[in-house]
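Data deposition worksheet. Section B asks for the primary sequence of the deposited chain exactly as it was used as input, without tags or linkers unless they were present during the calculation. Section C holds the resulting structure in token form. Section D is free text for depositor observations; keep each observation to a single sentence. Incomplete worksheets are returned to the depositor.
Section A, Depositor: J.P.
Section B:
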Amino acid sequence: MIQMGKSDGPDRRTGARMGALGGAIILATGGWYWLDPAVALTIAVVIAYHALALLKKVFARLRPAAH
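Section C:
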């Protein structure tokens, strides 16, 4: 079983915070519409990074069990 650390909770909220911040900036500036896809891309990169890190941990635990 994979145990979740203390830092797993805040990481999940990071994307929501970034999206809210991007939306607030777009509303405040009244025209930075390019910011929405840029924030979405940044969130996707953060999610992909954490997904790859999780896969690395899973494969590291499975590899010794195969021998």
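Section D:
DSSP finds two helices and no strands in the chain.
The two ends are 19 Å apart (CA to CA).
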